Structures
1.
Amino acid sequence: MKVVDIKTYILSSSLERPFAYSQGWVTKRSTTVVEIITDQGVSGWGETFSVGLQAPEIAASVIESVLKPLIIGEDPLAIEVLWHKMYHYTRDYGRKGVVIGAISAIDIALWDIMGKVTNQPIYKLLGGAFREKVQAYATGFFRTEGQGESKKMVSEALKHVSDGFDLMKIKIGFGIKDDLQVVNHIRDAVGDEIALMIDTNHAYSAIDAIRLGKALEPLNLRWFEEPVVPEDIAAYKHVKGQINIPIASGEAEFTVFGFRDLLESKAIDIAQPDVCLVGGFTACKHIMALAYAYGVEINPHVWGTAIGQYASLHLLAATPISHHSLFAQQPIFEYDTSPHPFRTNLVEIPINHVDGWVEIPQGAGLGLNLNRDFLKKHGTLFSHSLIHQ
């Protein structure tokens, strides 16, 4: 079996109403999707989602101009070999960011092909399922005005509870005073039985993150995500040593080399690799083994399309517990509740929770059926001609 073609698609959809997180305003949802096609008619799908404010054309250009020539003609089942081939070829200008995200899309598609060829779901190829379903946590709480929206955030929290969620992650980072008002009001509204996490998307310095964390310690938060910028591991370590809330990070980190630095420094309690950014399933395998050795909990991040959601669920199924016990805390699934047509319409059967729980996909490969009519209508096939325009 050989790879004969790779098709790269840009998907972009403007939002009727933009929303904000701590780093800026999101005006559209966009992503880069790849289809790897083999000479035996088997194809696989992968994604590198446009993290933050990233334009999807950047990753598409990397795939088309750099990675595609490396993969055409190769055996798609030699996944580890191809991962190293892509990483070493781009090492001098890659290592982090959009290049690794582009490798992620290729890698996910290769695993999808492997699953289809062997008629196995990807989680079985990763070693099997530690769990058949995962509890979901609602991600949302984005702002439409900016500060002063605590009443709106409380209303959203109550809706999540009524929808069956027992866990939710609150997007903050809009100033310590505003953050405290929002989180405290939500806790008062939902009660102590609902697990809360907070995510500032690296909005603060270490000292301000510590001030915020100390003020919120009484609320028994499950984790404090991205308190400081991802480059500053010393700041992470400082924050972790000063507050009694587990520190989570990793959505903006890449490959086993980046996570090695985080784990060796004992800077985090929870590692959050995103399969669509960190280097795909292959990189996640490396990272999970390392995190297990360091005793650090793995809880994957996902905020992409349905492809990313399916991939993340396979990864969650195959994620071991770092601290085994009869009643060990299990990893949980990030369930994006913000507007996203590529999450709901890109596949024939979108991921949906039932009373806050999601079943692990059971089909071959990723287990999804892509809605090609939707892709044709809303996607743009990227090509070399677009690179040089």
2.
Amino acid sequence: MAEKLSVSFEFFPPSSEAAEARLWNTVEKLAPLGPAFASVTYGAGGTTRERTLKVVQKLKNDGRMEPAAHLTCVGADKAEIDGIARGWLEAGISRLVALRGDPPQDTGRYQPHPNGYQNAADLVSGLRKIGDFDISVAAYPEAHPDSPSEVADIANLKAKIDNGANRAITQYFFDVDLFLRFRDKVAAAGIDAPLVPGIMPIGHFGRMVNFSKRCGASVPDWLFERFEGLDDDPETRELVAASTAADLCHRLIEEGVTDFHFYTLNVPSLTFATCHLLGMRPNLSEAA
């Protein structure tokens, strides 16, 4: 089964020398697993643009992971975004993750730039006019917090796929049945592009809970019970976290899922351990 699995990873651009060292240590540890690609996030309003560019270019030049650059609609007009996309192509980077993006903190709800792309579906359409990109978009098993309804959210996903996206990567989740119900609804809406589950190994339970409240991802009661009392026991917490993520993936594999996207948080251990529990083994010769 492990030979049939495909994984991809998400990194974020570092903000300090120490964080940069952690990122490249993470790349070194995970590259031998042979990911399909590694996406690099793009801060709200393009706040990490230069750092994202640096990481993506280094990944491309390094050759161990195929980079996918995040691109958002926030805070830029169409000409600026199109210029960034053309720059990626000129640098040999043809994989993109096209997102609406979140507004900068304390600025209220998302507002499209007056001369910009209105949303991710509009952005995908624009990117298709620029070049032959491989485009991933986001999907939300529990609906995006800004969506008026689940029906509207799935319609928005269909627009992104219809406009030319190659696949959808989901927000992380911890309830397999929730994902399966969402997959059925997506299929019923006529969406036939791959739906890749996003997996978040839990490095710190409390921080994950707080983040989940902001992004609309539910945390089931059994997960609170599983991590109870482990805040000051990182070794046990890591074992439980890897086992929990692997259990989630194994159940998804039983339901026919073969592709997984890991939100690594620039920490290699939990993602590597989860992949190991799925039967994946590093190819050290390819990583050399």
3.
Amino acid sequence: MLLGITASRVGGHHPLKGCERCFADDEASRGWAYWHVEHQLPSTLVCTKHHCPLSIAWDPITPVHRRHWLLPRLNKLYTWTEIQVPSNAAMDCLLRLAADSERLMGLPPATLEPERLAKGYQRILRESGLATEHGNLRTVRLVSLIKNRYRGLEDLPGLAPLRAIGDQWPGLAASLSRRTPRSGHPLKHLLLIGAISDSLDQFIETCAPRPLSGRTYTPSLAEEVTTFNYLERFKELVSVHGKSVAAASHALGVSRTTGVQWAKRLKITYKSRGRPVPTKTVTKIRRLLMKGNSISSIAAASGVSMTTVYRIVGAHPEVSEKRRSDAFSSQRAAARRSFSATCGAMSDKALKAIRSRPGNSYMWLYRNDHQWLQDRLSQQGRVSSRSR
């Protein structure tokens, strides 16, 4: 939910997938079959090892009760459905998509930041004649290219974004290649990369920062593309060459925030250059935080940014714990009121009907306030099958 996946056309339902030939190989070499991580990626529909479609495992149990999926061949309730690949050309396309997915999954963090991706898209689109020198998309050509590339794949599981590409709307490219890019699901990036580039490596090379004249420590293109050894290079710039975290981050083409995270990960001591907040202001902010005021209102009342308030919350565990506890208590009270009101309005209905009513709060209470829920149901003479 936090990543926005459920709001995208990709959706948030990703059923388990597997390759029967991989399962047979696993049993022959290890004695049991297991789920392969690379097969579970939303953009992977075929097995790159055996060049065959994957099969989707489906069972009649609701997701909250799905506790038996540890190994693929232990559950006899699974219904296996092989993904139907319409043609050899479609298979080649899906194999490229699956291979790119595995490659992308193995890249180090921050290899492809949104701004870098957008610049790579713009370069390739201009060089291939799919965009003007000013960055305006040649819509007709681009739509034709993408439709021809993925023809017949629109109805395959997980490839719904392809339906958003219309004659006047290039869909994938329009939002991902902006100068100020919008966030996009990795599947959408992979689909666009597969349509406009010969390989993922070629695209990554296009996205790599160009060497700048007069900058001694900017890594070469070969170093960026071939090794992706960002962490070691970052450590060298700071520890050996005496660069600041900000300067080292700029030299590597990443944001200062990413550089700070790398420094923490590498346990590199650095001095923050942020403007110190007066002690009196910190005390005021802590007092307002303990009262439960919102972050935005505290920032406005104290004359600081919301980032500063969040930083103070993180620096004082007791404040963070108090706010977390208060938020939970408020949410619990609201859930209890909601469920009680629903039960009162549907006193003559079965529990199943109450649970089907929107906003009933049953599942939240089941997971977070189970004992109260059971007591409430017992008082009403109701029995939940989930408590057995």
